[in-house]
Amino acid sequence: MKNRFETFTMLINRISRNIRKIKNREMAEYSLRSSHVSCLYYLFISEGLTATELCERCEEDKATVSRSLDYLETNGYLTCESKKAKRYKSPLVLTEKGALVGKKIADKINGILEEISGGLTNEERAEFYRSLSIISDSLEAVANR
């Protein structure tokens, strides 16, 4: 296949840019950014995650997650259950406001996934994710050499 590098990087970058654009558009009414969406989503579908666990799930660095959590806590979307332990080790939970937005995010994500998957069979989708995982793992191995 000709131009493998150009095609691969262009498609990955375009997908990433469009995901960020959708996140920003959908969250503008709440004054939230794309970096806040993943935190709210994972806290909504899970029960009390720590900042460390959110970093792992969101695949974001500690500083980005920390800034997002500060914003979300300051603006009433989440709270830290324990004031005794260090914050990054303390479970974070959504407030009522955060749970409402978290539900909207989860519903929106599910709707978009259904919409964009319409042209694929379940088998094609499974093979796509399998292939994408292999590529991701291989790139991580090369990056960590």
What is the number of helical segments per DSSP (H or I, 4+ residues)? 6
Approximate helicity band: 55-70%
Could you state the order of secondary-structure elements as H and E?
Answer: HHHHEEHH
Question: How far do the termini sit from each other?
Answer: 27 Å
Q: Calculate the mean pLDDT score and round it.
A: 89
Spatially, the strands of the biggest sheet line up as 1-2
Overall geometry: globular
Written description of the protein model:
By secondary structure, this protein is mainly alpha-helical. 69% of the residues lie in helices and 4% in strands. The protein is built from 6 helices and 2 strands; from the N terminus they run H-H-H-H-E-E-H-H. The protein has helices at residues 4-27, 34-45, 51-58, 62-74, 96-116, 122-143, and strands spanning 78-80, 92-94. It has a two-stranded antiparallel ribbon with strand order 1-2. The longest helix has 24 residues, at 4-27. The protein is globular. It starts with a helix and ends with a helix.
Provide the descriptors you would attach to this structure in a database record.
single chain, 69% helix, two-stranded antiparallel sheet, mainly alpha, globular, 145 residues, 6 helices
